[in-house]
Design brief:
By secondary structure, the chain is an alpha+beta fold. It contains 13 helices and twelve strands. Strands 3-2-1-5-8 form a five-stranded mixed sheet. It has a five-stranded mixed sheet with strand order 4-10-9-6-7. A hairpin with a 2-residue loop joins strand 1 and strand 2. Helix 12 packs across helix 13. The chain is elongated. The structure holds dinuclear copper ion (CUA). The site of dinuclear copper ion (CUA) has 9 residues, from loops.
Amino acid sequence: MKKKFINNKSKLLTLFVIFSVFSIFGCTPDNNQSTFGTAGPIADSQANLFLTIFAIAVIVFIAVEAALIFIAIKFRRKDGDKLPYQTHGNKRLEITWTIIPAVILIFVAIPTLVGIWSQQNGVPDDQGQVLEIEAIGHQWWFEFRYSDYEIITSNELHIPKGRPVSFKLQSQDVIHSFWIPKIAGKVDMVPLNDNYIWMIGDEVGEFYGQCAEFCGTSHAHMRFRVFVHEEEDFLTWVDQMHTPADPPLPNTPESRGQMLFAANCSMCHTNNSTTPGSYLMEINTQDARWNSWVSDTENSALVSAPNLTHFGTHSTIASGIKELNHESLVEWITDPSNIKQGTRMQKQAMVYNTRDGKANLTSSEISDIASYLLSLKPGTGAELIIDNVPLDGVIDAEGVFAINCAACHSLGDDVIVGPGMGGLKDRAGDRVSGQSAYDYVYESIVEPQAYIVEGYPPVMPAWASLGDETVNALVEYLLALE
Ligand code: CUA
């Protein structure tokens, strides 16, 4: 019996040693999420604070263990010893062992509180021009808004080297936590309660970010990447984020993918936030998607989703889980939960409303969407060439509607995302006094944000890019509907 106990004990000890050794590997400074190999002054001060506290803990550990071993050996029971004299309470001793830890804790608390205070209370004035970013946690991805530059990105953050970045941390749903182990962190992102943190990246490179607060099924898969650039390269990136992508050439996988994206994905994913005004519009649209989801979490076809502007320049997909390439993108679009359990996209988007939950698209359609998304990069600034007009001059308005509009609008009375188009001609003329039905429908297509009917989410993209003739054909088609 005793032997078995010893055996089990040694097994446990072996396991413990193995586990400890493996855990220590996570601490090697060059590990992507190690807090020891730091790349910024804040992470540096946090690492130093940790080492200070660790040193104190080591001293306390050695002192206590040494005293324990000394006493255990010196006063161990010898043959013939009687039961020792029993005491109860010793005021001097008790005061001593209360005061010593209290002093140690005060010693630890001072640099800790100073650190927390200085990192959450805004950037000191002497640190240079501050870059302001709003970081927003969503289940399960990160959104970044650069208010100074009117740029919105998701899951990949770009910052200039050596410049202080001030983050306003928010959450749209549950509590997340913002952490870039090598640069700074971690601070909770709490709904309806903004938190702040600032940091400086002082090494050019790619760094890992991670949600550090359990936030549901895919918490462990809620990551992001941080790219620290030289100031000049950062400004180039800013410039590129304001440069629209070139439109795909006709009859290419990219052009087919663009249509499919418009029909199946564009209600939740904006992919063209490059022009003036697009920043505010995306913020409003994201709110509208959220309101739609929160008002009916089971049936909403809308859900807040990552902005995909210049997605082709990203290095990862699914919040930093996989390297971005055509293959991983196809895998992701086909069956997201294969990569990331519980995505809202798969649960809410109509295109996944199938028996097995996989996308209701053929593999070549998925491949085309992937090609299109990978082609989203800052363009050459070439003029938008829209060639929707077939040679015989007749535009297939029904086809245009099916590809571009049918994902959100039915031809009858049913509401999908936007209103049904049935009977449009009877009501379009009464919407704005002095405006004809024709003009009303035309304007609603090219500048929908000004014409959102009350009760519907303002998520419709502007379709001026279809070209004047196509929009005219579409208006005629819609007004002819019974
Ligand atoms: Cu978000 Cu954990």
